[in-house]
Amino acid sequence: MFFVLMVASVLGFVVTLAVSVVLELLGHELPWWGPVIALGVVLATVALWGVAWNLLDAARYLDGEETVGTITEVTADDSMGPESNPAYDMLITAEVTGGGRIRRAARESPRDAPRPGQRIRFRHNTRDPDDLRDILFLKFVDGTAQRSDEEAS
User: Fold this and answer.
1) What mean pLDDT do residues 117-145 have?
2) What is the mean pLDDT of residues 41-69?
3) What sign does the dihedral 70-72-76-80 (CA atoms) show?
């Protein structure tokens, strides 16, 4: 629904600009507010698209299982630019209720760099141990890193 609205608003903006240029070339006086309103509609639609996308992402995991896992590996991606926080690719391991261990991968841009051993809360829909993309990041549980079983021995 929002996709159709976004495409329609972009097309409306392009048509408004084209009509404005044609009217200007023909010597007709055109209202200054036409392209401004068209641009406002495009920006409002893009903002609504972003909100709808986040709500859809949360709805996909509404029936999912909430789990607390431990970050086992962190890779920083500094290509985001100097004005933004770097993105971090995190590999997470968690024990699920009823036994078993799952691994998930997440990409986040927190202010403080995540560390291996830090705990993270997330939602997942499957118990497939290697379905790395089945994750909805919720939050970092705390700032303290905990030792994994491999490090303890």
Assistant:
1) 85
2) 85
3) negative
Alpha carbon distance 110, 77 (integer Å): 12
Beta strand pairing call for 87-95 and 101-108:
antiparallel
Question: Which pLDDT value is given to residue 92?
Answer: 94
Per the listing, tokens 């896992």 go with 69
Give, in order, the Cα–Cα distances in Å from 93 to each of 45, 46, 67, 78, 123: 38, 35, 10, 24, 13
What lies within 8 Å, CB to CB, of 34 at 6+ separation is: 16, 19, 20
Q: How many residues are recorded in the chain?
A: 153
- Residues 6 or more apart whose CB falls under 8 angstroms from that of 85 comprise 109, 110, 111
